[in-house]
Specification:
- With about 500 residues, the chain is of the alpha+beta class.
- The chain has 2 domains: about 5-125 and about 165-510, Orthogonal Bundle (Cytochrome-c3 Hydrogenase, chain B); about 130-160, no CATH class.
- The protein has helices at about 50, 60-65, 70-85, 95-120, 135-150, 175-200, 220-250, 350-360, 365-375, 385-410, 460-465, 475-480, 490-500, 505-510; strands at about 5, 15-25, 35-40, 210, 215, 265-270, 270-275, 280, 285-290, 290-295, 300-305, 335-340, 425-435, 440-445, 450-455, 485.
- The chain has a 4-stranded antiparallel sheet with strand order 1-2-3-16. Strands 6-9-10 form a 3-stranded antiparallel sheet, covered by helices on one side.
- Helix 4 (about 95-120) packs antiparallel against helix 6 (about 175-200) and helix 7 (about 220-250) runs antiparallel to helix 10.
- It is globular and about 70 Å long.
- The protein binds NI-FE active center and magnesium ion.
- NI-FE active center binds near residues 74, 435, 440 and 507.
Length: about 500
């Protein structure tokens, strides 16, 4: 007998996601079950691609940043790249470095957000704070607030910490309390990331300084110092707090190096231009059935058989269409199903790591990952898991912070931050980059100085896609299949697997 187990809505993500699973009971284990198949349902339509049509192309980097408050710089960069191609320019040297510096700040902010404020409560026992007897003022305040909130009889006291599911959380009170104290510290680190990005980005979220050809903020010595002092604090936190916490959680939950494997195919567009020729710090590529391949943009298409759109299925995004059809029969999601040469692909930090790990030209990423795996006595294939995704994200945060210091050194102080350009009457462009959550593309067509078509294919569109035209489940749907759920009323395992992808439904349905 099958039983439906749902997690709906999925909390501690961005946007509106519902997970429905069909499960079968496990013999001799009361109540426990195994997921036979899963459905990822994106429950909202936003319409940014429609909003953009008819507008000035220069507005696109501002409008598309509003797709998301977590990863706005990614959309700004993708948009600026698409416009640069259409205008026939590349960023100036300073422009490229300033864009990278703003972008790095936003990437690190997002990774810290994900580990502490979105995913950690799947592992940490928040109720341990009630036993806190130390002198830390922040923790005393947190403990007293949780106590008072419970005593007040509110419907959801101490949200988002409580209520919590019954689950196999970390048992040690001191470990729980330490993780909770870092949860609070991480809020301050995220503010510092935003301040750091705003030094050159003018404001964050939603930078006003990103423009085709560079940035509007001249890198004065004062601004360089304002960035570097914040970067030191952030780097120290990532190295001395975030990575050790990640290792601690991994130590307590080793089974999650085997759980949530997923489709096993990985896609990266590459990110952070290192020079004018477009070489990237994290390289592009694909890994399909364990084999590395060079990335080819023409192999992307978006299928909509199970998505709530009446526009044709299988279009390349340069010709993409987004016609909403709420009542479409057989459709169960507002997310389209992007595919690469018809393959289901995982995108995100783990995908970037895997693509660069397998790149035959040899990258520094392999050395870094192997060194980490060796200290933990792990095999490379164990990266294809819930904890592997967390590890990839944490390692990236450190790499990005280290590399940002180098870009800062390369800046030409007081020199122009952008290149001039003239907008053509007609043009097309594509901007490919990597958002914190994975491969992000914007496709732009300009006619008569106006946007004639604008299509975004976004990381969570890849990861949380529904079944495609051939019935292949999406990456998260595949990662859930086969998972064991100990208590169907408290399906923490679903939460842990889904959140390891760091879904942003706001982005996915744009
Ligand atoms: Ni709204 Fe985003 C990232 C983009 S995810 S967070 O990272 O693009 O689909
Ligand atoms: Mg789209």
């Amino acid at each position: 007998m099958t039983r439906t187990v749902s997690l709906s809505p999925v909390t501690r993500i961005e946007g509106h996601l519902s997970i429905q699973t069909e499960t079968e009971p496990l013999d001799g284990n009361d109540g426990a079950c195994r997921v036979k198949e899963a459905r990822c349902e994106g429950e909202m339509y936003r319409g940014f691609e429609k909003i953009l049509v008819g507008r000035d192309p220069m507005d696109a980097q501002q409008i598309t940043q509003r797709i998301c408050g977590v990863c706005p710089v990614s959309h700004g960069i993708a948009s600026v790249r698409a416009q640069e191609m259409a205008y026939g320019i590349t960023p100036s040297e300073n422009g490229r470095l300033l864009q990278n510096l703003i972008f790095a700040a936003n990437q690190i902010q997002s990774h810290v957000l994900h580990f502490y404020h979105l995913a950690a409560l799947d592992f940490v026992d928040v109720s341990a704070i009630l036993q806190y007897s130390g002198n830390d003022r922040g923790l005393i305040a947190l403990r007293d607030w949780v106590k008072a909130s419970i005593a007040s009889g509110e419907v959801f006291p101490a949200a988002p910490f409580l209520p919590q599911w019954k689950a196999d959380y970390v048992k040690d009170v001191d470990v729980n309390v330490s993780l909770l104290s870092h949860y609070v510290e991480a809020l301050d680190i995220r503010r510092t990331c935003h301040e750091m990005g705003a030094v050159f980005g003018a404001r964050l979220p939603h930078s006003t300084a990103l423009v085709p050809g560079g940035c509007t903020q001249t890198p004065t010595l004062e601004r360089v110092l304002a960035y570097s002092s914040r970067l030191k604090k952030i780097f120290t936190f990532v190295r001395d707090v975030y990575l050790p916490d990640l290792v601690e959680v991994a130590k307590q939950f080793p089974a999650y190096f085997e759980i949530g494997r997923g489709c096993g195919n990985f896609l990266s567009y590459g990110v952070f231009e290192m020079d004018a020729s477009g070489n990237r710090f994290i390289k592009p590529g694909a890994v399909i059935d364990g084999r590395w391949e060079p990335f080819e943009v023409d192999r992307i298409q978006e299928e909509v058989r199970h998505s709530r759109y009446s526009s044709p299925s299988g279009l390349h995004p340069s010709k993409g269409m987004t016609d909403a059809s709420p009542e479409k029969s057989g459709a169960y999601s507002w997310i389209k199903a992007p595919r690469y040469g018809q393959h289901v692909m995982e995108v995100g930090p783990l995908a970037r790591v895997m693509v660069n790990y397998h790149d035959p030209s040899g990258t520094w990423v392999k050395k870094e990952v192997d060194a980490f795996l060796k200290t933990r006595n792990l095999k490379p294939e164990q990266m294809l898991s819930v904890l592997g995704r967390h590890v990839a994200r944490g390692l990236e945060a450190m790499w990005f912070a280290k590399q940002a210091a180098k870009w800062l050194d390369e800046l030409h102080v007081d020199e122009a931050p952008a290149r001039d350009f003239t907008m053509p009457k007609e043009g097309t462009g594509v901007g490919l980059t990597e958002a914190p959550r994975g491969a992000l593309g914007h496709w732009l067509t300009i006619r008569d100085y106006r946007i004639a078509n604008y299509q975004c294919v976004v990381p969570t569109t890849w990861n949380c896609s529904p079944r495609d035209d051939r019935g292949q489940p999406g990456a998260v749907e595949q990662a859930l299949a086969g998972a064991t759920i100990q208590d169907p009323k408290h399906p923490i395992e679903i939460g842990r697997i889904v959140r390891s992808f760091d879904p942003c439904l706001a982005c996915a349905v744009h």
